[in-house]
Write a structure and sequence with these properties.
Keywords: ATP-binding, Coiled coil, Motor protein, Nucleotide-binding. By secondary structure, this protein is an alpha+beta fold. The protein has 2 domains: about 5-115; about 140-410, Kinesin. About 45% of the residues lie in helices and about 15% in strands. The protein is built from 12 helices and 12 strands. It is elongated. Bound molecules: adenosine-5'-triphosphate and magnesium ion. Magnesium ion (MG) binds near residues 291 and 316. Adenosine-5'-triphosphate (ATP) binds near residues 178 and 319.
């Protein structure tokens, strides 16, 4: 236990002995009253000091064994206890040396708390332990969830697309959190897109439907659209370049975009794979990081007895990040890529917000990304958003922001349950 600081006050009589003189004194004793009174006060202070020092010492002792094996709530309690004891110590003007042991312990436990799981899942409720914010989602997948589990949560959308709805599946989240892995998979683990392609063809076969199916794939890099099914030159250019417009029914048309027919599942899978490979080529030609772009794989479905084509988009969004967190600050090209990604994601957030708040004007025109998705967000379209969260506590603030956007997206409701021409709100692409 730290040395008692109050020893310098010991000549002052203890509170008990001084009390009667102080309380019952006559006028004659007045000159002494003030000094005795100070003595009492100082003694009370020294007792308080003793209590605070004891509290600090106890807090240090009791929390010294806290480590990763303790639950996060225990670690938080320990940190709060030390913080409280330190605040009391500071209020009593304790010296740095007197606070040092508790301060060292507080820092150790604070770091431990930050290193520990920053996201806590309880059923469909997720808590960001660092900020205490809680979010309720339709489903939460933890580290034990497989690609199949994630697909199971969205496979019904294949039927919605076949029923004529425009459907979009997004993967959103900070850079490196697993968006591409979830959407487009890895060599040994098919992602949502590959699984959904199989599901579509399975449903078409099962229902014995006559449906024309085709696919396209494009990338939006630095506000520049690239067709991933067409060749690009060594500078990443294509002739003619892609351009967008809205048709009379409010559907987004990308002029110049290659849409390739697929009569069988393996043909659509091959189109998809070719697009992914071309993405790496495009990234190289443009000297870009492939993850610094949005990739949109789209399946078009037209039933024999219908003149309407529904779209099923798989939108692997580029990762949002804070500029100073990465090396991009030192590299101008990377900085521009990151700024453009952040701009587009903020435009997407604004569109989602406006739809959720049922605003009359939806700012689709603020970015090419939102123009591209105009007929897939709001109206009769169906959208499913996965928010990929990194387990790293170093990025917990960005993760918390991503969860906030997802929470807003949850409030978006369809205009009608029956598919029809998308309602054009706000102004579309020129
Ligand atoms: N659930 C997972 N299981 C195994 N590996 C994963 C998982 N999620 C992501 N990974 C791996 O982590 C790395 C980063 O994932 P990914 O590229 O999907 O992140 P991202 O969110 O798309 O990043 P960026 O924003 O930079 O595009 C990849 O090597 C990926 O294979
Ligand atoms: Mg990615």
């Amino acid at each position: 236990m730290p040395a008692r600081q109050g020893h310098a006050l010991s000549p002052i009589p203890p509170a008990d002995s001084a009390a009667p003189v102080h309380e019952e004194s006559s006028q004659a004793l007045k000159p002494f009253q003030s000094s005795i009174s100070i003595g009492v006060q100082t003694t009370v202070e020294s007792q308080e000091l003793e209590v605070v020092l004891q509290k600090l010492a106890l807090a240090v002792e009791d929390t010294s064994a806290i480590n990763q094996k303790n639950g996060i709530s225990e670690v938080k309690e320990a940190r709060d206890r030390l913080q409280e004891a330190l605040a009391e110590g500071r209020a009593m003007s304790l010296s740095k040396d007197q606070l040092a042991a508790a301060e060292r312990q507080r820092r150790r436990i604070h770091n431990l708390y930050q290193e520990m799981e920053s996201l806590k899942v309880d059923g469909n409720i997720l808590e960001v332990t660092l900020t205490g914010d809680t979010y309720e989602f339709d489903g939460i997948f933890d580290t034990s969830s497989s690609q199949e589990d994630i697909f199971d949560s969205s496979c019904d959308l294949a039927q919605s697309a076949l029923d004529g709805h425009n459907v979009t599946v997004f993967c959103y989240g900070i850079t490196g959190a697993g968006k591409t892995y979830t959407m487009y998979g890895a060599p040994e683990a098919d992602g949502l897109a590959q699984r959904m392609i199989s599901e579509l063809f399975r449903k078409v076969d099962m229902n014995d439907e006559k449906v024309t199916i085709s696919g396209s794939m494009m990338e939006l890099y630095n506000n520049h659209l690239v067709d991933l099914l067409r060749p690009i030159d060594w500078q990443g250019r294509q002739n003619p370049p892609l351009s967008m417009k809205l048709d009379k029914s409010g559907n987004v048309q990308v002029e110049g975009l290659a849409k390739e027919r697929a009569s069988e599942e393996h043909e659509l899978q091959a189109i998809f794979q070719r697009g992914l490979e071309q993405r790496a080529v495009a990234a190289h030609a443009m000297n870009a990081e492939s993850s610094r772009s949005h990739v949109l794989f789209t399946v078009y479905l037209t039933k024999e007895d219908s003149d309407r084509t529904s779209k099923l988009h798989f939108c692997d969004l580029g990762g949002c990040e804070r500029l100073k967190k990465t090396e991009v600050e030192k590299d101008q090209d990377r900085k521009l890529e990151a700024i453009e990604i952040n701009k587009s994601l903020s435009a997407l957030g604004d569109v989602i917000e406006a739809i959720a708040r049922k605003k009359k004007y939806i700012p689709y025109r603020n970015h090419k990304l939102t123009q591209l998705l105009q007929d897939a967000l709001g109206g009769t379209a169906k959208a499913l958003m996965y928010v990929n969260c990194s387990p790293s506590s170093a990025t917990i603030r960005e993760t918390a922001n991503a969860l906030k956007l997802a929470n807003r997206a949850k409030n978006v409701v369809n205009l009608a349950s029956e598919p029809c021409s998308p309602t054009s709100r706000g102004r579309g692409p020129d």
